[in-house]
Amino acid sequence: MTRGLYNPRLERDACGFGLLANLDGNPSHRIVADALAALERMTHRGAVAADGLSGDGCGILLALPGRFIRSVTDLPEDQAVAVGMVFLAADGDDEASMRAIEDALTERSWAIGGWRDVPVEPSVIGDHARKTLPRIRQVFASRPGTPGSAELERSLFLARRAVESQFNPRQTYIASLSTRTIAYKGLCLPGNLPRLYPDLRSPELETSIAVFHQRFSTNTTPSWRLSQPFRLLAHNGEINTIAGNRAWAHARHAKWHSPVFEGMRYAAPEFSPDESDSASLDQMLEFLI
Fold first, then answer.
1. What is the helix, strand, coil percentage profile of the chain, to 5?
2. 138, β-bridge pairs
């Protein structure tokens, strides 16, 4: 039955996402707070597990909060700083994963500045999410150069891909690794994201831009790593031609070359063949950019 302009036959299930930014480019905590408030308004765009607290996955992608990062690290002031948000299997070999990440970075001239256990509050997530809760750590690295430059971001992209080629993503998943951005995401309800991650409530955590996303699981089971946003985008809907795109890219990989990528082998495969469509799209865009 229709009511006014609303027609239930036109209703479609899909993820909810949004973007907030300061047009002057100045960072502020208000952007974080407003983005989280808007994200909570999208709770209806995702499902809730029977435990009442595990969601399809939600998150927020921020321009790297420099003041906050400097407050929790001791890195050179005159160098570019990269931060990696890493999901490690709670019952896995953390040392092997961390060593691989450090090796991949140092091979590309990054100096490791240390690791940080990201504070989390497991009580705000449900039983399902808690059973698969990874150990969430941040890795810090520094290197001479211009923060956000294509050269530095390409080196971080190749470092991440080198690590991903060694580990199952259920064991080691790098949610973000960049001098530009950082991602906080997980299997919780949108209103509980800042409770899960106390970092997000810190006044020192300031950003000039925030992309937020509430996932609606369509073709893949909810998991910590498939929560969005991804490293470049928040994706709404499905890509019906994803199988064809994967086959096209795989068939032509041997001919791919780039004057700006050294060591193209580290980028292969350009996407994970068993990921969700939106995760694959994010990986393809990273490679092309």
1. 35, 20, 45
2. 85, 116
Residue 139 and residue 81 in contact, taking contact as beta carbons nearer than 8 Å? no
Give, in order, the Cα–Cα distances in Å from 101 to each of 36, 49, 84, 217: 30, 34, 10, 30
Provide the strand spans (E) within the chain.
16-21, 58-63, 80-88, 111-117, 135-143, 172-178, 181-186, 209-214
Contact 135, 90 (CB under 8 A): yes
CB 101 within 8 Å of CB 152: no
**Which of 50-64, 68-82, 237-251, 268-282 shows the lowest mean pLDDT across its residues?**
268-282
- Give the single-character DSSP code of 123: G
* The token pair that represents 249 in the structure block: 């890219």
Handedness of CA 88, 121, 228, 83 (dihedral sign): negative
Contact assessment for residue 102 and residue 139, using Cβ atoms and an 8 Å cutoff:
yes
pLDDT attached to residue 282: 55
Cα–Cα distance measured from residue 278 to residue 284, given in angstroms and rounded to the nearest whole number: 10
* Distance, CA of 272 to chain centre: 15
Whole-number Å distance between alpha carbons of 193 and 91: 24
Upper half-sphere CA count for residue 279 (Cβ side, 13 Å)? 22
Q: Which two tokens stand for residue 102?
A: 């450090």
**pLDDT tens, position by position, 160-210:** 989 988 998 889 999 999 999 999 999 999 999 999 999 999 999 999 999
| Tokens describing residue 132 | 């698969």
Is 188 a catalytic site residue?
no
Structure tokens at 130: 């808690």
Q: Which of 11, 15, 212, 246 is catalytic?
A: 15
82: which strand partners? 141
Give the Cα separation of 288 and 283 in Å (integer). 9
Q: Which residue has the tokens 């709670």?
A: 90
